[in-house]
Amino acid sequence: MLKSTGYVLAAGAIVAANEAIFVPITAGTPPWSNLNWRLIPATALMAIVLGGIEKVSPKFGAALGGLVLLSVLIVPYGNAKPPLQNITDALGYSKKV
């Protein structure tokens, strides 16, 4: 497997876990109720595209995959807060204003 493909699949799994598990925990709703199923084909398409880029330029493709993985952790995608913020909320480490 290519490096970029692994990074993109990990990013897709993190976003899916965020929307399916961490958001419902912080909102008090049942798990898997807010999962955006369009994440699955979007992740697969991005893995294919970045895999093609990595075949042409290995370092550039792997770097883009790493940037995708890092950006998923801190940028809000969809209707959910970023995963790092949801995890800190679920563990009780965030400030309540």
Rg computed from alpha carbons, rounded to a whole number of angstroms: 15 Å
Q: Stretches where pLDDT falls below 50 for ≥5 residues? A: none
Order of helical and strand elements: HHHH
Question: In the residues, how many domains can be counted?
Answer: 1
What proportion strand? under 5%
Q: Distance between termini?
A: 45 Å
Can you count the helices?
4
User: What would the average pLDDT be, to the nearest integer?
Assistant: 87
List strands and helices in order, with pairings.
Layout lengths: L2 H25 L11 H18 L1 H17 L8 H9 L6
Helix pairs in contact: 1-2, 1-3, 1-4, 2-3
Could you describe the 3D structure shown?
The chain is mainly alpha-helical. The protein has one domain (3-91). Helices cover 71% and strands 0% of the residues. The chain is built from four helices and no strands. It has helices spanning 3-27, 39-56, 58-74, 83-91. Helix 2 (39-56) runs antiparallel to helix 3. The longest helix has 25 residues, at 3-27. The N and C termini lie far apart (45 Å). 21% of the residues are buried. The mean pLDDT is 87.
